[in-house]
Amino acid sequence: MSRMEIRDDDIDISLLREIPLQFLKNNLLLPLRRENGCLVAATGDERSDLALLDFARRYGLRPLSVRTSPGVIIDAINRFYSQIGTAEEVMEDISGDDLSAVATEFESPRDILELTEEAPIIRLINALLQQAVKEKASDIHIEPYEKEIDVRFRVDGILHKVLSPPKIIQDALISRVKVMANLDIAEKRLPQDGRIRILIGGRDIDIRVSIVPTTYGERAVLRLLDRRQGLMGLHDLGLSEPYEEGFRHLLNRTNGIILVTGPTGSGKTTTLYAALNNLNRIEKNIITVEDPVEYQLTGVGQIQVNPRIGLTFASGLRSILRQDPDVIMVGEIRDLETAEIAIQASLTGHLVLSTLHTNDAASTLARLLDMGVEPYLVASSLTGVLAQRLVRVICPYCRIGYRPTAAEIAYLDGEIEHLYRGSGCERCRNSGYLGRTGIFELLIIDADVRGMIVSRTDSKTIREYAISRGVQTLFMDGISKVKQGITTLEEILRVIHSEI
User: Fold this and answer.
1) 416-425 contacts: CB < 8 A, separation 24 or more?
2) Average pLDDT for residues 381-410, to the nearest whole number?
3) CA 170 to CA 370: how far, in whole Å?
4) pLDDT digits (tens, 9 = 90+) for 161-199
5) pLDDT digit string (tens) for 69-95?
6) C-alpha gyration radius of the chain
7) Cβ-proximal residues to 102 (8 Å cutoff; 6+ apart), any chain
8) Which tens digit of pLDDT belongs to each residue from 311-327?
């Protein structure tokens, strides 16, 4: 083991189960393993050595210290403690006397890995949050039915069941979520939205909470955002080389509108943030209006939409124009008013980035016209449309090659010797997939497309023209990633089968 690194296989997790997390943090001590009558531990200073000596005596072992930096020890403690215990294990501890135990206070920013002595309902919610972060889940669903509750995680865009707590704890479970999100626990007839900000293993997690009443009780969905995760660069999105080059060219313009399109959950916001990150320089004034602000961008002015007080995308956009911006990002164009203000902004020397919910790049043009925007305004302001979807990536730990079937070869438009798929392993929950990447379709608005917009040409004709000019559709880009061994044909068909 390196003095400056603690790897996963260096630690015996069972050693940590009996030691309070805060004790190890306070003493900068991390027990690693038993070896030849010694207790081997990473230590940060002399104080750590004393704690190790005392701890080793309890087990009848000799202390063996491996000195490393305090930062490495704290990071490793957070990492390995997040692997201890699941929501299922916590459920086994809940007895009948505990079912109504719901705390009325949550001390946010305490790290929930330290809250080991709390009431079982609190520990159950903490364990669910901890497990969701460990499994890289984007959402937690708590769903009541007639005789049971289901808890499901959305991982890589797919929901899977993780727990079925007894129906009797339903009210306590939902009440605990409400308390954490500062919602009204007495109101059970109306939908409520809130936010929770907590630490899990040293990671700052922002959680958006939505609670709605259903036939069998209140249903909660928690959307998890890791504020420390860091922004993706354009190169990390999965854009092919020509598309990345074309998209960068659009971003280098000083005016015009660039639209990123796709259904909910297709990664549009991630792409916009990557674009802003690429543009974020000291000489540029960048302002956004978002709903909600998902990640903090240093050097960027970010406005949170609040319709209750009249702060909409349209009103926020009007205010932004008085702030002397170079680049404007509008989270979504939802109506004609917002579209027209964004277009006027682009025509007066601003680069505008935004999103729309459309299936492909060509249908975006028709959607703007259907909203009531004049064709000549769309033609003169729109510079490019990037349509996208997210597809799961083959798990690198269980990736295997195989000979494609005749049906697969037909889809792939040509003979190919090998394709790849995941055989399923513990790391990918036997799904064969681990993580996601994007598939894209980039339509750059040239003089011919502008003429088609003005003459209200249908989207099918525009799409055919784009393909004739070498534009790869979403399906074509997906097939390219199948041939590269990044994803599978089955996954491409699952995501975009209706648009082939």
Assistant:
1) 416/483, 419/482, 419/483, 419/485, 419/488, 419/489, 420/394, 420/485, 420/488, 421/394, 421/488, 421/490, 422/394, 422/395, 422/398, 423/398, 423/399, 424/395, 424/398, 425/395, 425/397, 425/398
2) 94
3) 45
4) 999 988 999 999 999 999 999 999 999 999 999 999 888
5) 888 888 887 777 665 556 666 666 555
6) 26
7) 119, 121, 122, 172, 175, 176, 179
8) 999 999 999 999 999 99
Q: How far apart are CA 256 and CA 345, in angstroms?
A: 8
Backbone CA torsion sign across 273, 278, 282, 286: negative
Is this prediction's pTM over 0.85?
A: no
User: In the beta sheet, which residues pair with residue 441?
Assistant: 387
Residue type, 104: T
Tokens matching residue 497: 């089968």
Task: Convert the pLDDT of each residue in 450-472 to its tens digit.
Answer: 999 999 999 999 999 999 999 99
Going 287 to 293 to 294 to 295, the CA torsion angle's sign is positive
* Residue 277, burial from CB neighbour count under 10 angstroms (0-12, 13-18, 19+): middle
| Residue (of 259, 247, 235, 239) closest to 474 by Cα position | 239
230 burial level (CB within 10 Å; 0-12, 13-18, 19+):
exposed
- In this prediction, residue 1 has a pLDDT band, given cuts at 50, 70 and 90, of very low
pLDDT of residue 445: 96
